[in-house]
């Protein structure tokens, strides 16, 4: 649906500021019908990236192709037509305070010169879709944050777009409201077949809704692919730090305090074991004891869900020499469990 091909974006130096390379050689594919997430820290270039999709910014070099059309090559009039097929939602909703919920949703249709009866026919089911039929005559000041975002979503859908862009749409909402908005976006993706491209700094958002993800850092895409693969492979340092909140990735304080980096006779080895749903760990841990004669203590662990699939980490300590540890790790690997030595404790 969207392809970035060698896209770079520089903002020229200002009177008191240096030139900024906001994006640097970005190659990125947003599959049609997917929910694709782009995650990165503040200032990584996420908003710049998404603004290139609807032509609010032009790339310094490279191409941004949306549904077969190179956006940068369009004149203003053609760009307006393309924008109608792209909806966008924002962190601060951007509703007009002087317009009711209904009239906010109707706005893009009015701008497109659509007649009143057609507008009525379009907006009413959208209010229903976002669960706010009873709020049609309310003003934004009379709505909660979550309700405002629902109106923002309905407005973005009014022109029947093929692509929905979301710039931190849940960042101003509490966790529970965030979940309900993400569920709504997923429904829209599934039932209306809309491709959704969302950018966020929140791991939770990606984990919950994105089937594809790209990790951006300093204007470069450092990793991309199916969400589960990217986040359970955790190869890149940026991805790892963004995953920080994920259960089990951070070692408990009591462990790190007493941990040393080098093995010594008599020290226990701290092993982090990663399991991906299909591979139950429990019998494996028991067998480390019964088959290999290694004593196993569980120190920390948790199971989480990424893109609908279970994913867990377990931190264990093993009392065994290096040869036995190596043996234990290859035994685990033979059963589909990856592991890493994170340190040693007494
Ligand atoms: N219009 C602009 N003029 C100059 N610099 C900009 C402009 N827009 C963004 N930047 C800079 O580009 C970088 C990326 O910004 P942005 O895309 O907004 O990041 P994010 O959305 O990931 O927080 C930042 O260093 C920001 O200061
Ligand atoms: Mg931003």
Automatic annotation (TrEMBL):
| GO biological process terms held by the UniProt record | amino acid transport
The family database entries (Pfam families) matched by this protein are listed as: ABC_tran, NIL
Keywords, in A-Z order: Amino-acid transport, ATP-binding, Cell membrane, Membrane, Nucleotide-binding, Translocase, Transport
- Name the Gene3D superfamilies for this protein: 3.30.70.260, P-loop containing nucleotide triphosphate hydrolases
**CDD domains from the entry?**
ABC_MetN_methionine_transporter
Describe the location of the ABC transporter domain by residue ranges.
2-243
Mind listing the GO molecular function terms for this protein? ATP binding; ATP hydrolysis activity
The record's listing under PROSITE patterns reads:
ABC_TRANSPORTER_1 (PS00211), ABC_TRANSPORTER_2 (PS50893)
One cellular-component annotation, GO: plasma membrane
InterPro entries per the UniProt record, alphabetical: AAA+_ATPase, ABC_transporter-like_ATP-bd, ABC_transporter-like_CS, ACT-like_dom_sf, MetN_ABC, MetN_ABC_transporter-like, NIL_domain, P-loop_NTPase
Family the entry assigns:
Belongs to the ABC transporter superfamily.
Function statement:
Part of the ABC transporter FtsEX involved in cellular division. Important for assembly or stability of the septal ring.
This chain belongs to which protein, by name? Cell division ATP-binding protein FtsE
Q: Which organism is it from?
A: Phyllobacterium myrsinacearum
Read off the lineage from the record. Answer: Bacteria, Pseudomonadati, Pseudomonadota, Alphaproteobacteria, Hyphomicrobiales
